[in-house]
């Protein structure tokens, strides 16, 4: 039997998955609907940010930037110093 | 509402069993209607969408020389909709109507090659959908059995503990 959306772009599989996971996960943590919605939105944003950053790193690797790993280490160190500074300040 | 108020859960063990059999049914039994509808839509929706996108051939049991089909351990969390896969005997399947005789039956290696050639990565995404549906239902079963994981924190947020009395200044 042929699937309904046989030629669907792979990216369209992500939104339903993120929505379902964040809603169900939040609902198993809270009983109050206000908290469930708020937590679900935050969780969905976390997932999208994580996947987005993985996507970005893979994209940067694929376009072969010169000294890519050096750039990545410098950016990582900058982020760590920034977080350390903001935690102290 | 006091911060130490307990959430009354009707027959937790029975509700957990119902939650496994049909996602959302355990919560319906406990009178938590909103959650019940949410779980049913999200989990059964993911499972059916995944099965459909996998041409109804991504949920099955295989335990032979080809190896064990590990995704089923996650998929079986969805409950009764994943149980027909356990019926592997052709003699038993012969009792079923023709239309559903091959439902959740393990595909032959040739059929599997054909599926991957035709649908490519879509089959993997379909499998992920059905696995995630099953894994999410394990969380739902826990919720039906023991209540929401952060119930105490939720109660503290609603009514923070009274602040200690101020000491008189000398």
Automatic annotation (TrEMBL), chain A:
Keywords: Membrane, Transmembrane, Transmembrane helix
TM regions (residue ranges): 12-28, 40-61, 67-85
Protein name: Uncharacterized protein
Organism, scientific name: Kolteria novifilia
UniProtKB/TrEMBL annotation, chain B:
Keyword Membrane attached: yes
Keyword Transmembrane helix set for record: yes
Superkingdom, taxonomy of origin: Bacteria
Membrane-spanning parts: 36-56, 68-87, 126-151
Alphabetical UniProt keywords: Membrane, Transmembrane, Transmembrane helix
InterPro entries found in the cross-reference section: DUF6677 (IPR046499)
Pfam annotation, one family: DUF6677
Span of domain DUF6677: 15-153
Name used for this protein in its record: DUF6677 domain-containing protein
Lineage: Bacteria, Pseudomonadati, Planctomycetota, Planctomycetia, Kolteriales
């Amino acid at each position: 039997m042929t699937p309904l959306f046989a030629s669907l772009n792979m990216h369209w599989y992500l939104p339903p998955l993120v929505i379902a996971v964040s809603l169900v996960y939040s609902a198993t943590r809270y009983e109050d609907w206000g908290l469930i919605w708020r937590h679900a939105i935050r969780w969905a944003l976390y997932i999208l940010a994580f996947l987005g950053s993985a996507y970005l790193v893979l994209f940067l690797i694929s376009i072969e930037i010169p000294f890519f790993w050096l750039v990545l280490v410098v950016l990582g160190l900058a982020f760590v110093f920034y977080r350390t500074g903001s935690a102290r300040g | 509402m006091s911060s130490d108020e307990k959430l009354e859960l009707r027959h937790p063990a029975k509700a957990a069993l119902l939650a496994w059999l049909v996602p959302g049914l355990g919560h319906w039994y406990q009178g938590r209607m909103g959650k019940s509808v949410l779980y049913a839509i999200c989990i059964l929706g993911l499972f059916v969408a995944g099965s459909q996108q996998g041409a109804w051939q991504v949920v099955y049991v295989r335990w032979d020389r080809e190896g064990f089909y590990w995704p089923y351990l996650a998929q079986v969390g969805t409950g009764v909709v994943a149980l027909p896969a356990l019926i592997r005997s052709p003699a038993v399947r012969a009792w079923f109507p023709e239309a559903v005789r091959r439902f959740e039956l393990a595909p032959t290696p040739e059929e599997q090659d054909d599926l991957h050639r035709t649908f490519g990565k879509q089959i993997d995404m379909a499998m992920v959908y059905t696995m995630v549906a099953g894994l999410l239902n394990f969380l739902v079963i826990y919720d039906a059995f023991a209540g929401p994981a952060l119930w105490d924190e939720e109660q503290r947020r609603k009514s923070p503990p009274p602040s200690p009395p101020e000491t008189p200044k000398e």
